[in-house]
Amino acid sequence: MTPRILIVEDDEALGRQLADRLRQSGFEPTWLRDGGAALAVDPTGYALVVLDLMLPGAHGLDVLKAYREAAAETPVLVLSARNDTPSKVRALELGADDYVTKPFWPEELLARVQARLRRPSLQRESVFERGALRVDLDARSVAVGGAAVELTRAEFDLLAALVRRPGSAVSRQWLVEHVLDPDREGSARTLDVHVSRLRRKLGPEGGRIATVWGVGYRLGP
Amino acid sequence: MRLGLRGRLLLVVTGAGIALLLAVASAHEWLASRAAEQSLRAALEVRVDALDREACEAGRAPLFGRPPRGAGFHGEDFPRRTHGRRRPPFALHAYARDFAATSGGPPLPDRVRDELAAGGGWSVAAVGERALVGAMPTAWNEGPCAWVALTLQAPPALVPSATFGFTAVTLLLALGGVVALAAGSTVGRIRALAAEVRAVAERRYETRVTEHGGDEIGELGAAFNAAAAAVRAHLDEVEARERALREFVASTTHDVGVPLSALAGHLSDLREAHARGAGPDPRTLDSAARETHYIGALLRNLGAAARLEAGEPLRDAGDVDLGALVERVALRHAVLARAAGVELGHAVPEEAVLARGDVTLLEQAVDNLVHNAIRYNRAGGHVALVLEAGAGRFAIRVRDDGPGVAESELPRLAEPRFRGGDARTRRPEGSGLGLAIANEAAALHGFELRLRNAGEGGFEATLAGPAA
Question: What is the average pLDDT score of chain B?
Answer without folding.
Answer: 82
